[in-house]
Design a protein that fits this description.
By secondary structure, the chain is α/β, with parallel strands linked by helices. It has a domain of 216 residues: Rossmann fold. 44% of the residues lie in helices and 15% in strands. Strands 3-2-1-4-5-6-9 form a 7-stranded parallel β-sheet, sandwiched between helices. It has a 3-stranded mixed β-sheet with strand order 7-8-10. α1 packs across α6 and α7 packs across α11. The longest helix has 21 residues. It starts with a strand and ends with a helix. 45% of the residues are buried.
C-alpha cells in the first residue's frame, strides 16, 4: 500500500514517516528539497509544494491514503495572506489531487486552535465552535471545514486530527516548541508566564494518525491531547532531565500585555522572534486544563504517554543533535 505524506520534514511528519516505515508501508513524501530529517529512511521523495498541482498529482498517484501534515504555524508574526495561501488554498489543492487520484482516505492534521477556546469549567471537546480570533486559528478552522466538507465526494473519505501543543524527538528544524526547549537550556527565557498548555508527544499523534487511517470515522474531527502543564511545570521538567537551572520568576499577565506591543515592534524591525506576542499570550492564558481525547480513545484506542517521558526523550534527542 502506498501512503502519501505532505509536511514529512517537520516534527509531526518526521514522527509519522518513521511510524509508517516501521509498520511496513510504502511511503511517498512531498518535499521542497532533500532534508536531513528523512536521511536513511526507505521512502520515495517527490519534490514540489502545496502550490504546485503537478507535484501533488505525482504524490497522490496510486496512493490509497494521504496524510496532509504540511502547514504554516504562527503565533502572530506572519501575514494572514501567507497563512491562508498555505493552510487553506494549499489544503484545497491536496484535496483536489486526492480526489483526482481516487485516494481512499485523507487524514488532515489540523490543530486544537481550529476550535474556539472554551472556559476552564466546560469540557473542551470536538463540539467547540470554529475559531475566529486570530489569523492562524481562522486558517486552520477554514481548512478543517473544507476537508470535512469534502468527505464522500469523489469517493474520498476525510478525517481531521486536532493535536494540542506538540513536543518530541526528530525535531530537525526545530519547531516553535523545540526552539523553546533550546531557549530554556541556553538561558534565553529569563522569566515565565502564568498559564499553560496541553502538551502531546509527536509519536502519539503519529500513532493516532495511523490508527485513524483504518478506524477513524469519515467526516469526523478528533482532538489529540496529552497532559496539561503550566509553563513553570514544563520548565521544571526540563530542568530535572537536563540538570540545568530554569527561570523561577513569573510575570503577571497584565504586565506582559503592557510590554508585548513594544516587543512585537522590536521583532518587526529586527526580524527576530519576539519572546512574547499577543497571540501567544492569549493561547497560554486560555490554555484549557482538560482537553478531551475521549472520542479518539473510543474510536481508535488513542492513549498518550506521560509528559515526563516525552520531555526526557526530547531532551536526549536534542542533546545528540543540537547540544554536543
Amino acid at each position: 500500500m502506498i501512503i502519501a505524506v505532505t509536511g514529512a520534514t517537520g516534527l509531526l511528519g518526521a514522527a509519522l514517516c518513521r511510524h509508517l516505515v516501521r509498520d511496513g508501508y510504502q511511503v511517498r513524501c512531498l518535499v521542497r528539497q532533500n532534508d536531513r530529517s528523512l536521511l536513511g529512511l526507505p521512502l520515495e521523495c517527490i519534490q514540489g509544494n502545496l502550490q504546485d498541482p503537478a507535484s501533488l498529482d505525482r504524490l497522490c498517484s496510486g496512493a490509497e491514503v494521504v496524510f496532509h501534515v504540511a502547514g504554516l504555524i504562527s503565533i502572530g508574526q506572519m501575514p494572514e495572506s501567507d497563512l491562508w495561501q498555505t493552510n487553506v488554498v494549499g489544503t484545497e489543492h491536496v484535496v483536489a489531487a486526492s480526489q483526482k487520484a481516487s485516494v481512499r482516505r485523507m487524514v488532515f492534521f489540523s490543530s486544537v486552535h481550529a476550535f474556539e477556546a472554551v472556559p476552564p469549567d466546560r469540557v473542551f471537546d470536538e463540539t467547540a465552535s470554529p475559531a475566529t480570533r486570530f489569523p492562524y486559528e481562522r486558517s486552520k478552522a477554514a481548512a478543517q471545514a473544507l476537508v470535512l466538507k469534502a468527505n464522500g465526494i469523489g469517493g474520498l473519505e476525510t478525517i481531521s486530527l486536532n493535536p494540542t501543543s506538540v513536543l518530541g524527538p526528530w525535531d530537525f528544524k526545530p519547531s516553535l516548541q523545540g526552539q523553546m526547549l533550546l531557549d530554556f537550556l541556553a538561558g534565553r527565557i529569563p522569566v515565565l508566564t502564568p498559564g499553560g498548555f496541553d502538551w502531546v508527544d509527536s509519536r502519539d499523534v503519529a500513532a493516532a494518525a495511523v490508527a485513524a487511517m483504518t478506524h477513524g470515522h469519515p467526516g469526523e474531527a478528533y482532538l489529540i491531547s496529552g497532559r496539561f502543564a503550566t509553563l513553570r511545570e514544563l520548565a521544571q521538567l526540563i530542568g530535572k532531565v537536563s540538570q540545568r537551572p530554569m527561570p523561577s520568576r513569573t510575570l503577571p499577565f497584565w504586565f506582559l500585555k503592557t510590554i508585548t506591543p513594544a516587543l512585537e515592534g522590536w521583532s518587526r524591525l529586527s526580524g527576530r522572534q519576539a519572546l512574547f506576542t499577543r497571540e501567544a499570550l492569549s493561547h497560554v492564558e486560555s490554555g484549557h486544563p482538560a482537553v478531551s481525547h475521549a472520542k479518539a480513545s473510543r474510536d481508535f484506542g488513542y492513549k498518550p504517554r506521560p509528559l515526563e517521558e516525552t520531555v526526557q526523550d526530547m531532551y536526549s534527542w536534542f542533546l545528540d543533535h543540537y547540544l554536543k
